[in-house]
Predict the structure of Outer membrane lipoprotein carrier protein LolA.
Amino acid sequence: MNIRSLALAPALVLGLAFPALAEKIPLNELSRYLNRMTTATSEFTQVNPDGSISTGTVFIQRPGRVRFEYNNDNTLVLASGGNVAVFDPKSSGPQQYPLSQTPLSIILDANVNLGRANMVTAHTESKNATVVTAQDPQNPQYGNIQMVFTAGPTQLRQWIVTDDSGQKTTVILGEMREGGSIPASKFSINNELARRN
């Protein structure tokens, strides 16, 4: 299984109960919402490309930082300093690559602008939610991220990452707790390297 897919990609799960939404949320409102989000924590359920399911907790600190802690597993995914590190207990060291090469970088960008030319490839209303598919306009070969938002107030509920090999990973968020402080050490790749050696 592609570890990059495991960590950073999701699949649309139907039948989730979303609040009623009369029309899709405008892109400028979604950009404002993401730019206002500085820190957030949520339980998550991840549907992996092979159909298996993982659960855990995600910590987000925008810009540029995310931590996925998996339940019942010593796997850890960290993004910070422009890099992503996947710590897999079955590997001798972490797999690392630039954050800019994963579609998750769109959410973590310092200035999210979904109105940029060629960034959004789809913007629809479906099952009382707004669904936006976005890619890096300069590097569409890196894949895309499909984000699902609900209104009243606007909230990110789920994303599906399609990676550069076409594999899809879905992350379904629980109740997102926004605001508050998260220690910088939570996102330190070097600290995790030292802890595991």
Summary: Residues 71 and 161 are 21 Å apart (CA to CA).
